[in-house]
Amino acid sequence: MLGLNLTKPAPTGPRPLSDATPMGFLAVSDFEQARAFYEGVLGLTVFSQDEYALVLRSGSTLIRLTKPPQLYVAPYTVFGFQVTRIEDKVFALTALDIKFELYDWLGEAQTAHGIWTAPSGDKVAWFKDPDGNLLSISEHKV
Hints:
- This protein is of the alpha/beta class and 142 residues long.
- It folds into two domains: 22-70, 2,3-Dihydroxybiphenyl 1,2-Dioxygenase, domain 1, CATH 3.10.180; 73-142, 2,3-Dihydroxybiphenyl 1,2-Dioxygenase, domain 1 (Roll), CATH 3.10.180.
- Helices cover 15% and strands 30% of the residues.
- The protein has helices spanning 31-41, 86-95; strands at 23-27, 45-49, 53-58, 61-66, 77-82, 116-117, 123-128, 134-139.
- The strands form two sheets. A four-stranded mixed sheet has the order 1-4-3-2, covered by helices on one side. Strands 5-8-7-6 form a four-stranded mixed sheet.
- The longest helix is centred in the first third of the chain and has 11 residues, at 31-41.
- It is globular.
């Protein structure tokens, strides 16, 4: 496993990525369609675009959309957004024709609008982009 000795305690020196800003990656089939959705519907800001990637900004996080030769859609959440007032966000996105996912297995813990309340009190709602990537918005109790 990459030559790591997991029996040793973690080093106490500098942490090379401790102050780095995470960057998400998503696969899409068409940059124009993705840009219309992520910028036009969700309201993200375009950071850059070339023939290899469309890079968007949400808060301080960059999201790099790429077009792989073969697109595989994962059956689980691939990217999420932490929000406040999740109910307001769900209603605003629904007004923009976003369809939230409803899961029978969540039972009464998920509202008819798609907001699931976890036992901790955190709330999550899921929706898909035009390529079927499963995205989420979540509100976490502090």
